[in-house]
Amino acid sequence: MGEFKHLVIVKFKADVVVEEILKGLEKLVAEIDAVKSFEWGQDSESQEMLTQGFTHAILMTFNKKDDYTVFLSHPKHAEFSATFSTVIEKIVLLDFPATLVKPPPPAAAKEEV
Amino acid sequence: MGEFKHLVIVKFKADVVVEEILKGLEKLVAEIDAVKSFEWGQDSESQEMLTQGFTHAILMTFNKKDDYTVFLSHPKHAEFSATFSTVIEKIVLLDFPATLVKPPPPAAAKEEV
């Protein structure tokens, strides 16, 4: 069994300072060891038909599902979620054991490009 | 600038054999070198309120946006997309340069858990 992923896609309310939210998220994951890695991105293609209005993806990776459970029940997560829920217009969450079909090549391969 | 990600979340039509679609996807990314890595997952928590009915996440990683462009314009991608579009009930796509805030620890750290 591989890693467990917590994926959030979101459209923020119009007046929200997204940078502050992301900073809060960064602080949150830094404080909770159970989160193995965290990355996010803002859609750069802006094809409304494809994005359905969603703009940001947030992806957390855990070594195992138990670590995700630890994260979920962490008081700081509850605190952050309470704030987060006030700034979003819409959201989809998917939580899943990840199947890595095409693993990235060794880091050295990156240099060859 | 970091990696570029192609994220797809999807709800398949009721009569679709998802395994076959994923097998096709696996074949596709294996054939196109521009795709650095590929992973997918099926939501295991099934909280309809949170998933909005979406069940699967598909995540492709590219070393740079140009590689994503190569992938998009690849004839095999066009071929696969034509099939894919017939099996989905709903879909959201987000394409973004990824910001890695909390990088995963060195592989060795995994063993300590």
From TrEMBL, chains A, B:
Signal peptide: none annotated. Residues 4-96 form the Stress-response A/B barrel domain. Gene3D superfamilies: 3.30.70.100. Coiled coil: none annotated. It holds the Pfam family Dabb. Homodimer. This is Stress-response A/B barrel domain-containing protein. It comes from Rubus argutus.
